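I have been asked to look over a protein record a colleague put together. Thanks in advance; the entry in question is below.
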Amino acid sequence: MKRTVGGAVSLLLCVLFSNCNGGPSQTTPRTPANPTSTTSPAFVQAVPASCSQCSNGLSVAITVKAGDAIVVPLWFNALNVEVQVSDSNHDLFYLWASVPTADLNNSPASLFVAQGVVGGPTTVNLTFGCSQAPCDPQSGAPASVFAGALEYQNITHGLDASIIASGSLTQQTQGQVIESGAFVTHISNELAFGMGMANFGMQAGSGWTARLGCNPSQSATVGSGAGYFCFEEEAAPQADSFNATFATDFNSGGGLGGPPTSGSPNGYGIAAFSVY
């Protein structure tokens, strides 16, 4: 979504997460060493996966082209949980974003990526371990998990810019916009990702494409009251500034979760970043 920031038209990519004590904070981006332009990354497919009262693992089956990237966003209802991601073809997954927050229903989020994968039929395996409630201390499993495996072409380099943001809402209306704040990409043909989680239903913002989650009734699938998750993307065709946005969303069962109060507001978090 193009925005004017400080008098300049800007484009922004971001990954969002909850930190109710402050506004957006920007990490120091690294300026790419080589290209002034590159081939734009492109979405191929997404396979969602979830569990409620999980075991200590969750698997996602996906068939991908050799050389592509597998992107694995995940969100879980547990404190002090350790997550490992691997697959049946022995591709190496790296943690690109982490949201270690305890103030949003004890629900952190992470994003793992494997580049240049072997390809073919692939089983992505998520393994969890933790030692206290709401995890099962014997299985080491979170109470609920929402995750998925997404295939992308042309993620050949890695991360460029990133930002994190958080907030809380004491009043919510259908379609109310929450946003990451702006950050600046450095080369042409990047791809922006936004990852948000909240105590209320979320949809992708204007100009952003929902790729995983972004369903106001998703909480009923992965555990009542566990929160809501949305993974979105937007093309970044030229170096500019981006702003990842999400919109509050209701469902017939109460998509905003419990009613917020001034003493107990409903929180949200956002993490955003660009890749090339």
User: Anything to note?
Assistant: The first strand starts at residue 3 and ends at 5. DSSP finds one helix and 19 strands in the chain. Residues 3-275 form one domain.
